[in-house]
């Protein structure tokens, strides 16, 4: 699981835009909003900068799914596994 959800990332990007594009101000607002006292527990300025760049490029701050097949569990697969393990279904 990711440490920062889409809600957190959106707040950071909105804070950056509403603070006249100041990363340090967005960082301070982020830490105040989520009650983060220690800097090591919060997001870094570089991370907020990365989220902003990603938002500008893709209109989203979330990670995209990698292309390829999505693994699924189908009834046929379950029956096949039970057949090979000799358990009645």
Mean pLDDT: 83
Structural Rg? 21 Å
Q: How many DSSP helices?
A: 4
Q: Into which percent range does the helicity of residues fall?
A: 55-70%
Total beta strands: 0
Low-confidence stretches: none
Largest sheet: none
Order of helices and strands: HHHH
Structural class: mainly alpha
Overall geometry comes to elongated
Gap from first CA to last CA: 34 Å
Approximate strand percentage: under 5%
Could you characterize what this model shows?
This protein is mainly α and 89 residues long. The protein has a domain at 6-58. 55% of the residues lie in helices and 0% in strands. The chain is built from four helices and no strands. The protein has helices spanning 6-18, 23-33, 45-58, 75-85. Helix 1 (6-18) crosses helix 3. The longest helix is centred in the middle third of the chain and has 14 residues, at 45-58. The mean pLDDT is 83. It comes from Euphydryas editha (Edith's checkerspot). This is DUF4817 domain-containing protein.
Give a quick rundown of the structure.
This protein is mostly helical.
Give structural attributes.
mainly alpha; elongated; 4 helices; 89 residues
Topology:
Blueprint: H1 6-18, H2 23-33, H3 45-58, H4 75-85
Helix pairs in contact: 1-2, 1-3
């Amino acid at each position: 699981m990711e440490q920062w959800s889409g809600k957190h990332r959106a707040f950071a990007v909105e804070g950056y835009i509403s603070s006249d594009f100041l990363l340090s101000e967005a960082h301070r607002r982020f830490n105040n909003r989520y009650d983060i006292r220690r800097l090591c527990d919060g997001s870094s300025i570089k991370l907020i900068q990365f989220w902003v760049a990603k938002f500008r490029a893709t209109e989203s701050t979330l990670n995209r799914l990698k292309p390829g097949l999505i693994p699924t569990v189908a009834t046929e697969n379950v029956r096949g596994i039970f057949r090979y393990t000799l358990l009645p279904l």
